[in-house]
Amino acid sequence: MTDFEIVMKHNHKLSSKVLAHLSQVVGERLSTKKVDLLTYSRDYWPITLHWMLKGKLPSLPDAVVWPENKEEVEKVVKIAHESSIPIYAYGGGSGVLGGTIPEKGGIIVDLKRMRSIKLHEEDLLVEVEAGTNGYYLEKYLNKKGYTLGHFPQSLYPSTVGGWIATKATGQFSTKYGGIEDMVLGLDVVLPWGESIELKPHPRSATGPDLKRIFIGSEGTLGIVTKAWLKIWPYPEKRVNLSFASENLNDALDSVRRILRRGAKPAVVRIYDTIETKRHFYKFEKAYGKVATVMILEGDTRTVEAEEKIVEEEFKGTPIGEGPVDHWLKTRFNVKEASEFAPLGVVFDTIEVSINWSKATQLYNEVSKAIRSVKGTLFASAHASHFYPQGVCFYFTFAGVPKGDPTKYYNKVWDAAMRATLSVGGAISHHHGIGRQRREWLQEELGNAFEVLRRIKDALDEKRIMNPGNMGV
Amino acid sequence: MPGKWDWLRDEIKGIELLRSAPLIFRFISGKLKGPDDLIKCALCPNMCRHACPISIVDGKETTSPTGKARTAFFIREGKLELNLENLEPLYMCLSCNACSEWCPFEFSVADLIRPVKETALQKGVVFKEFRELFENLERYGYIYGEPQLQEEIKSGNVLYLRGCTLRENYPELEKKVLKVLNALGENAFTINEKCCGIPAYNLGNIELFKKLAREQAEIINSSGVEVVVTSCPSCAYAYKVIYPEYGVKIKPKVLHITEFVKEKLNKLKNLKLKDTITFHDPCKLAIGLNEPEILEEILSKIEGLEIKAPRRKGKETFCCGYGGSAISRLKPKLADEIARERLKELQEEAELIVTACPTCKLAFNSNGGKVIDIVELLYEVLEE
Hints:
The structure holds 2 protein chains of 2 kinds.
Chain A: E1 5-6, H1 16-26, E2 30-31, H2 34-39, H3 47-53, E3 56-57, E4 63-65, H4 70-82, E5 87-90, E6 107-110, E7 117-120, E8 125-129, H5 134-143, E9 146-147, H6 160-166, H7 173-176, H8 179-182, E10 183-189, E11 195-198, H9 211-214, E12 223-230, E13 232-233, E14 237-245, H10 248-260, E15 267-271, H11 273-279, E16 290-298, H12 300-313, E17 317-318, H13 322-330, H14 336-340, E18 346-355, H15 359-371, E19 376-387, E20 390-399, H16 405-423, H17 438-445, H18 449-459
Parallel strand pairs in A: 1-3, 4-6, 5-6
Antiparallel strand pairs in A: 2-4, 7-8, 8-12, 9-13, 10-11, 10-12, 14-16, 14-17, 15-16, 15-19, 18-20, 19-20
Helix pairs in contact in A: 1-4, 15-16
Chain B: H1 6-11, H2 14-20, H3 22-28, H4 37-42, H5 53-58, H6 65-76, H7 84-91, H8 109-122, H9 128-140, E1 158-161, H10 164-169, H11 171-183, E2 188-189, H12 198-202, H13 206-222, E3 227-230, H14 233-245, E4 253-256, H15 257-264, E5 272-279, H16 283-288, H17 294-300, E6 303-307, H18 327-330, H19 332-349, E7 352-355, H20 358-365, E8 370-373, H21 374-383
Parallel strand pairs in B: 1-2, 1-3, 3-4, 5-6, 5-7, 7-8
Helix pairs in contact in B: 2-3, 6-7, 6-8, 11-21, 15-17
């Protein structure tokens, strides 16, 4: 691989004996070809786009396997466990924090050939294998009259397993919740190659909820091979609303009051003035103000009641369905990275959450912290996910640093994380930890980090599952 | 109304933007073109993955749309050697262009990576499976080798072009087409046609494609006819979309059989058939020829026919697996796996599948599907 510079170097190599064992399990669905290893060297961690353009890759695996069922995953993990080989689960590769980078070499287990779907209509459940593509699943459910209600911006490239591993959430989360609210049961292959089934009971009081250990564990504790997810009847009514408010506080406080009254809009997004100008420049009434887009959906009578609550509580001028339609049309457009990274622009998004009482303070402090880093062109945010107790802010920054882009990038991240922690926010709302945020997880969790570390030690004593990820 | 980039100019006041980020300033002022399309695609997180049949079925990052773009980019930049092993993922493309329907830049991955295939061909880096095909096309103008002599219908007012797949696999379809055209008030004739050249185009052999295009254009144009009808959406796509890009002009109006039938369908009265069917929109018809609803529309005119639409239809159709000329030759198992993925979905709706492409028919037939061409269905209706 001499043509590329490897950023996270390792000396790991697979023996021919291990490769032969792997081949016995998955046959031709094993590769050590250079072209495959290069492809699996990265995910969608934005700084790595700059690396790629300069001929640098994060790190290379030694082999990639594409299992087709749980039994094959078990056998592959067993081989890795016996020989202490690092192993990394791979879904859609759309993670933005380097969570799947094969930092220590070893085996990538791509689960995308596992995509069976089984619908349990009476139980309002779907049983789905981990490699199933997000849009593929949603489209399947829609045809049968249901929705999962999970629409991350990565819906098109990502997989069910990736959602669970990263504790993802979607654009419609204020009604349907995050993936942790949808997962009722799990099949997980543990680090020694044995699998467990955590059954999809509607609720149980049978000790701590073991599912929660694996949701958000980012491949460090096991490989999720199947999930039972809650589904909903496809909404019979949808109401699209948008508002222009004089300031961010008015809009945030409106949504806080709406949620306190028990209304649950599926989508709420409040854009600061910069992002309102950026996304809604065609809407004169919104320009220079704070735009909010909102979607109410579900049973007709529930939606009508929610609409009344919104009308009564929202402090802002209603500006019609136009901005919502515009958002619906453009919500999966991911193009800025492609256009601007080659121009030397370093950018990323940082999502953090905070209780209502400190929401404005967090917005101000994090924006200020990002802007204080030399080279920053702008920092902006929208509030993207809402709870009766608080909100998620989704910051976007871009800069053109004079020196090393990675140094600038890390400085911004450090500034944002420090500001979030000082105000009392959570350092990640839904992207997860990966390799970019790992330095900060310990501070976020305090002495609870030790619990995570001991769980890791207990389950994965050989430290083969996604080693280095999350800093555990 | 404010402009697209005014927000940025407001944030980074005038001169500061020019000073700290001159490239951005030039880009948003329209003075800089920005990166080329292959780079843009290579930097995307695969926002069209869900639409790509290869990506869904094969499940490999390397053959995902972005994986292919990235590999092509590395080869183009000299970071990856131009050899068969590295080229193989680039050929794992059905040329269905489903990706372009979801891309904010409307890129077709097939188009973006074709120049690398062209370079490979010029340098003699060619799979043996493709060499055989190219030889057949060079020698016989027919993808399957030496064609069997077929009876020509010498005169008529519409030229009917069968296409290689139909000629080789479904010669009996021709008679049914002619009968349906006849019922629509047209007398169709046939000629000693050649391959449209699209397989060569798909595989990056542009010189051969151009040669075949010129020869085929000469044959068609010299027939003196005003209307050409074909059963193959890929042929129609070649004549209508690709030939003009290479300066080859087909003088008569070219129509896929569904387009022709739709125009004249009112001539057929009392179209009745009691049956339950589902349908498969061929990618080259729905996406390539921009006719996403034509098949369903024709079917809807048949009284008594229960049409059960699949979840992936119109521009969201899912290629049958036999398109693009490469996969069925290099990885026939994968082509069949894609066909079965599609069949499974269709068969959940109905046992009988109607399509409008001989290649799709072949893919589903080869994998146990009960499938008929729209013309066969119309023939049956007319017979009744």
